[in-house]
Amino acid sequence: MPLGQHGLADKPASALLGGPHEEMVNSGRTLTPISAIVCSKFTFWIFCFLILPPHVVSITKSPRDWTTLLIDTELGVGLWYEYPGEVRDWPLREKVLGDPYDYEEDEEQAEWRGECGAWSIPDFFEVLKDQFRKLKFVPKSPCAVVDVYISEGVAFPDMIEMLQGIYREHGWPDMEKYRKKDCLKAVQKALKERYPRLADSDWVEEE
User: Fold this and answer.
1) Superkingdom of the source (predicted)?
2) CB-CB contact of 97 with 75 (8 Å)
3) pLDDT category, 206, cuts 50, 70, 90?
């Protein structure tokens, strides 16, 4: 359905991005879990399809308030949108690009880029690998990851600690000792017992 039918066509994407969530916060109202998810997914759609240029693609599939990782195929860099302070202040690898207002003429584009950490592609993936080694990014299944910075990681810190403990018990991060199959089974078992709503219903045990 065209945006014009919703009265959105004449509004800048940055205004749409903060729209319903910002309004409810400022009015003192509390988002219900369902409305928060709808709002989150809507704003993520706005971000990916109305703000990001075609040469910038997301490598994560998640609601807007979860970690967003991007690849800029034109500039040849990896971007971590709204990356956490500890990565900002003590980066594992040297960041690139500098102030986006120095090279980006479109203010809206410069605005979101200013919220990103940017690295060369090889360094970008080294930064992400380091997050997994330190269990800042914690896999819930072969396809789903929760992190310590936002979303479930903040809402359920005890769950994060539980998962981190399971991985360490199974040898992580020593790849010679890590027992992947047993670890993932233990992760799913613990989630289903203690956090059933957060378990990965699509996960199928390997034979």
Assistant:
1) Eukaryota
2) yes
3) low
